[in-house]
């Protein structure tokens, strides 16, 4: 695993997850737990799009799919270890908002990578 990929995949995924974790703790006192994920998701998605567009530097779609897979695996693992096991939510943790969050965690870097690679392709002339 290259140093570049480690930064894009591991470092950014942990940082993004930590931002969501801290937001969850801070907002826990202001927002009902049943809607907490729905409040955090747009903020987290916006930050994730920004990181994927401005910080992740790949040169192939396979690279971006690898980043997407690691980001998703880290999100699932950290959620389980630091939310499910630690806080033991009474009504459970895995609901629609969490599944959408996992889907976005995978789709955002994959779509940004696809878009960036398409935008960098030379346009064929119609001659």
Task: Give a description of the structure.
By secondary structure, the chain is mostly helical. The protein has one domain (3-119). The chain has helices at 3-27, 36-54, 61-87, 96-119. Helix 1 (3-27) runs parallel beside helix 3 (61-87) and helix 2 (36-54) runs parallel beside helix 4. The longest helix is centred in the middle third of the chain and has 27 residues, at 61-87. It starts with a helix and ends in an 8-residue tail after the last helix.
N-to-C CA distance: 43 Å
Proportion of β residues? under 5%
- Count of discrete structural domains: 1
Considering DSSP H and I runs of 4 or more, what fraction of the residues is helical? over 70%
The overall pLDDT, averaged over residues, is 94
- Written as H for each helix and E for each strand, in order along the chain, the element string is HHHH
Query: Count of helical segments?
Result: 4
The parts where pLDDT drops under 50 for at least 5 residues are: none
Principal-axis shape equals: elongated
The biggest beta sheet reads: none
Oligomer: single chain
**DSSP E strands, number:** 0
Structural class: mainly alpha
Alpha-carbon Rg, integer:
17 Å
